[in-house]
Amino acid sequence: MPVRKGNFGKRPNNQQSKEILIATCDSNIDFTKPVSFSEISQHEYTGDAYICGVISGETELGHRMGIRFISAEPNHFVIGFKFSRRPIVYFAKNPFTIGEYRREIDSFNKLNSEICL
């Protein structure tokens, strides 16, 4: 995923700009690099089929990252996912964003315990 620099690129000596660019480049799997799937399992819940698993890869900065996912079948519709790390969320130091991210994790964990375990 290409990084949108916006105004950050116009302030190359600004420490906050550097930090947010680094956090942005380190918060997602770079799908131009090899990825792998693991812990793939099939489940049935309330009569519907699901696939649960982990996709692993590297960020643009070369750090390892994994994403747990739950996919509704047969259409491969991802209904839940959880990143192993999301530096951009915490860099922003925005209580609302951090709270929403934590609620997203809680929601995934509940769904995962109902469907995948």
Unreliable stretches? 1-5
**Residue-averaged pLDDT:** 87
Which geometry do the CA atoms define? flat
Tell me the helix content.
Answer: 25-40%
Report strand %: 25-35%
Distance between the termini: 32 Å
Question: What is the CA-atom radius of gyration, in angstroms?
Answer: 17 Å
SS-based structural class?
A: alpha+beta
Order of helices and strands: HEEEEHH
Sketch the major β-sheet: 4 strands, antiparallel
Strand order of the largest sheet: 1-2-3-4
Give a brief rundown of this model.
The protein is an alpha+beta fold and 117 residues long. The protein has three helices and four strands; from the N terminus they run H-E-E-E-E-H-H. A hairpin with a 4-residue loop joins strand 3 and strand 4 (77-83).
Describe the model.
This protein is α+β, with helices and mostly antiparallel strands. It is 32% helix and 32% strand. The protein has 3 helices and 4 strands; from the N terminus they run αββββαα. It has helices at residues 15-25, 87-91, 95-115, and strands at residues 36-45, 48-58, 64-72, 77-83. A 4-stranded antiparallel sheet has the order 1-2-3-4, with helices on one face. Strand 1 (36-45) and strand 2 (48-58) form a beta hairpin. It is flat and about 55 Å long. The two termini are 32 Å apart. 7% of the residues are buried. Mean pLDDT is 87; it is low at 1-5.
Present the secondary structure layout.
Blueprint (H helix, E strand, L loop, with lengths): L14 H11 L10 E10 L2 E11 L5 E9 L4 E7 L3 H5 L3 H21 L2
Antiparallel strand pairs: 1-2, 2-3, 3-4
